[in-house]
Write a structure and sequence with these properties.
about 230 residues; alpha+beta; two-stranded antiparallel sheet
Length: about 230
């Protein structure tokens, strides 16, 4: 009898674990969202716009061009005194990324860019969480999400440009190795702010994943712009 109970318990535990793994999908036919063990491959570059692809790649002497960035959204509670919630996730757009021919170095660079996006998402996530812990307000993310997201997006784009320039255009010695090492160290240092499967799933589902929440239709603009206008 005890053996039977044990088998049932193990079966239930396995079932729960499998459900947890499959509950939050992180990729669909259009996009791949960053996860620790996810890597983009040549087959993921699926843009059909060859004219635009050829024009861009010829301009910079490349064989591949990707659309990598990060997405973010804020959900707010419908009632009660709950806090608002935010979701951030790096994304690789399959249908926006093109390939003329397979190039192993360019693929490694695009994988590196995906990891760089995750580093900056983690920094944005860290800043937002720290703001919330400091303010203890129920609408921290509604107020500051745009400002924080834009700031780290700009930093990410700057790093993207530096990597592509140094590794693929100027072809500096050891540039890729140096960047790869730096990003690996930063990923390790910020591991506690890793993008979770549910962060990714929020964008794939395209609606709140928690009951009692709706997408915030109006959140504060980038406050840095208001400061610039003064």
């Amino acid at each position: 009898m005890s053996n039977r109970i044990f088998i049932i318990f193990v079966s239930c535990a396995i079932s729960i674990q499998l459900n947890a793994q499959t509950e939050f999908i992180t990729e669909n036919e259009k996009d791949i969202y960053w996860q620790p063990n996810t890597q983009i491959d040549f087959s993921d570059f699926q843009s059909q716009n060859d004219t635009s692809c050829i024009k861009y790649n010829n301009k910079y002497g490349l064989q591949m061009s990707s659309s990598i960035g990060f997405r973010g959204i804020v959900d707010i509670p419908q009632r009660g005194k709950k806090f608002d919630k935010f979701y951030l996730a790096p994304v690789f757009c399959k249908s926006c990324s093109c390939i003329l021919s397979e190039d192993s170095l360019e693929l490694k660079v695009n994988r590196l860019l995906f990891d760089i996006a995750e580093v900056y998402v983690r920094n944005a996530r860290k800043e937002l969480l720290e703001l919330h812990n400091k303010m203890k307000a129920d609408n921290t993310y509604t107020m500051f999400f745009t400002t924080v997201k834009n700031k780290w997006n700009e930093k990410m784009r700057s790093s993207f440009g530096a990597v592509i320039r140094e590794v693929l255009i100027e072809k500096k010695d050891s540039a890729y190795v140096g960047w790869r090492k730096t990003i690996a160290e930063l990923l390790q240092q910020t591991e506690s702010y890793t993008t979770r499967p549910q962060d990714c799933y929020r964008f794939i589902l395209n609606k709140p994943i928690e009951k009692g929440y709706v997408m915030a239709k109006n959140i504060a603009d980038d406050m840095r712009r208001k400061e610039e206008k003064k």
